[in-house]
């Protein structure tokens, strides 16, 4: 039996939870919050009749209850991933999408159970602990505290872990064994890759919203609001996971590395004009609307200079408090002229000491990890040359000196086995989407 070949479950659980960008920073809050005395007046009045022990059902799916609390706690994960930048109007739409996701999750767990597939509490706790270790570098207590602080709960994320594990095991038994990719198909794809060597390849994220003629205008308006939220700093991965109706929703809308010829013409022409980090949409396509985000761009089977590993020295000085822009510009000019006179990396430390500058050395910097404006500047340097000065009045001025460079090897492309696995995964994902549609069609769902 073929196992479903996927990226690690933990990263998918975080994508699904909308936590990919939210976990990590809160450690300090969870661990280092100030401790103080809680003062409660003797004569208090309770405003409202809210009782946290009363759980009102929002939907009943084949007899299993999804409560308003379940929706609120899952919604809190997405809001936190978007740094709380969600408008009240958007919150209502997002709540409905979260409810739909919880219904799908319930159907997946029910179907797995009907197929005698069990996920033990110990397995769920183990996966949860790995999430805590990878994102908090310590115990689950830190993650528990963070989830509670943002209005969610450990139980909410554990339920999502349960759903992901159950669905993966179900697909491994009921779908994967019936997916076949022939050797001829793989060899044909390898030949196409070799023929396309040197052509541009794109890594694209997509949010696809299906639209029938009756609701086309409404879906387009919703897509436009999603684009606005994304441009205001929303997480593309979180929105893709919650909104996209494509099979790639589970991996944050990531289509992987593709050539534009593989896209519908409407998307291909739009993607061709994008730079990495840009998005465009909504774009009308057959059956609905798409929002696309260019994650990266490269050339097929060609080494990417941005994968070079650089040895850099960063030289920096701070401006005096209260320095004017004119004073800062003058000091930055003198600083740059002095550093440019240094005879290579061996001499720059001495020059920096004379200027009162700080020097930091790092010999494991990937060029692609540098900010976009600096990448080309650094890659065009020879050993011992420096970048243009950069910085701000608040942060001071900095320069980078190139001290070494290890260029990447030519990309030989995926192996036969890797490509076969990728093609099998794609077919499994498509059949999984059909499987879930069948479960939705046959479900008995009562809404409150």
TrEMBL record:
Span of the signal peptide: 1-30
Ranges for domain PpiC: 199-296
GO molecular function: peptidyl-prolyl cis-trans isomerase activity
Keyword field: Chaperone, Isomerase, Periplasm, Rotamase, Signal
Any Pfam family hit: Rotamase
Highest taxon above the source species: Bacteria
Name assigned to this protein: Parvulin-like PPIase
Organism annotation: Novosphingobium album
Lineage start: Bacteria, Pseudomonadati, Pseudomonadota, Alphaproteobacteria, Sphingomonadales
């Amino acid at each position: 039996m073929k196992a479903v070949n996927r990226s690690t479950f933990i990263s998918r659980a975080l994508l699904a939870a909308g936590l990919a960008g939210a976990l990590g920073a809160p450690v300090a809050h969870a661990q280092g919050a100030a401790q103080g005395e809680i003062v409660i007046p003797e004569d208090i009045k309770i405003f409202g009749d809210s009782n946290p022990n009363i759980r009102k059902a929002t939907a009943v799916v084949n007899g299993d209850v999804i409560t308003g609390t379940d929706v609120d706690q899952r919604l809190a994960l997405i809001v936190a991933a978007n740094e709380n930048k969600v408008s009240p109007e958007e919150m209502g739409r997002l709540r409905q999408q979260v409810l739909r996701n919880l219904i799908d999750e319930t159907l997946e767990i029910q179907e797995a159970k009907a197929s005698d597939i069990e996920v033990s509490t110990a397995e769920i706790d183990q996966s949860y602990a790995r999430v805590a270790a990878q994102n908090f570098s310590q115990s689950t207590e830190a993650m528990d505290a963070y989830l509670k602080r943002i209005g969610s709960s450990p139980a909410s994320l554990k339920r999502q872990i349960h759903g992901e594990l159950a669905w993966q095991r179900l697909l491994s038994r009921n779908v994967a064994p019936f997916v076949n990719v022939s050797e001829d198909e793989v060899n044909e794809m390898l030949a196409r890759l070799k023929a396309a060597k040197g052509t541009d390849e794109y890594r694209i994220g997509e949010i696809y919203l299906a639209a029938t003629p009756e609701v086309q205008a409404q879906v387009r308006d919703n897509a436009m609001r999603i684009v606005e939220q994304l441009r205001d700093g929303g997480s593309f991965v979180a929105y893709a996971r919650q909104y996209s109706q494509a099979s790639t929703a589970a991996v944050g809308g990531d289509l992987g590395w593709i050539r534009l010829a593989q896209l519908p013409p409407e998307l291909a022409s739009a993607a061709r004009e994008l730079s990495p980090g840009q998005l465009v949409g909504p774009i009308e396509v057959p059956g609905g609307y798409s929002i696309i985000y260019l994650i990266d761009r490269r050339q097929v089977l060609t080494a990417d200079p941005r994968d070079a590993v650089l040895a850099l020295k960063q030289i920096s000085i701070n401006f005096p408090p209260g320095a004017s822009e004119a004073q800062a510009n003058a000091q930055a000019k003198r600083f740059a002229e002095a550093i440019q006179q240094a005879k290579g990396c061996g001499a720059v430390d001495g020059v920096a000491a004379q200027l009162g500058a700080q020097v930091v050395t790092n010999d494991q910097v990937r060029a692609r990890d540098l900010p976009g404006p600096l990448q080309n500047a650094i890659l065009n340097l020879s050993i011992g040359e420096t970048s243009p000065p950069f910085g701000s009045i608040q942060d001071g001025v900095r320069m980078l000196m190139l001290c070494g460079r290890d260029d990447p090897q030519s990309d030989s492309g995926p192996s036969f086995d890797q490509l076969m696995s990728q093609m099998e995964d794609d077919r499994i994902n498509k059949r999984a989407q059909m499987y879930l549609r069948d479960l939705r069609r046959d479900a008995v769902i009562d809404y409150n």
